[in-house]
Amino acid sequence: MFTELGPMKLLTIAIVAMFVFGPEKLPEFIRNATGVLRRVRAFADSARQEVRSELGPEFKDFEFEDLHPKTFVRKHMLEGDGLAGLEEIRNALDPRPELEEVTAAVRDTGAGRAPGAVSLAKGAPANPSTRHVFDPDAT
Q: What pTM did the predictor assign?
């Protein structure tokens, strides 16, 4: 909740609070604010317990953090049996096997090259005496 509050921001807030409330009323304001925070936390905890008790025993492992989409996916899809299905999908969408087949086919056909053809493996002409003229408009 307060992950972006650094020491400089906290010091700035303290100085502003000192000017707004004054040194006499600041301790009383801090006590009141912490009391309100305690009551809000107690209310939230009691509401969570009430929801858990109303859901029944089949939801005894229910956590409110599980409602966050990232946590839900991590818990239900990436653990246990769901991981095998995810691997199948990942393997089906992986283009590497097809690219390896194409690369192997191109390398195999490179053995019977025409004179002047460029070798993909080395980038040099197959026959050094025959060179092609580079045409920038053709590319």
A: 0.40
In a domain, 23, yes or no: yes
Are the CB atoms for 90 and 96 separated by under 8 Å?
Answer: no
DSSP label of 41: H
Is residue 54 domain-shared with residue 85, that is, in the same domain?
no
For residue 82, give the H/E element and its range.
Answer: helix 82-93
Q: Single out the residue of 128, 110, 130 nearest to residue 120, CA to CA.
A: 110
User: In this structure, are 71 and 103 located in the same domain?
Assistant: yes
Distance (Å, whole) CA 26 – CA 8: 20
Q: Which amino acid is at 100?
A: E
Query: Per mean pLDDT, which of 12-21, 32-41, 56-65 is the most reliable?
Result: 32-41
CB 89 within 8 A of CB 96: no
Q: Please give the tally of structural domains in the chain.
A: 2
Percent pLDDT > 70 in the chain is 71
Residue-wise pLDDT tens digits, 1-11: 556 778 899 88
- State both tokens at 41: 């936390």
Q: What single letter denotes the amino acid at residue 135?
A: D
What residues make up the domain containing 29? 13-60
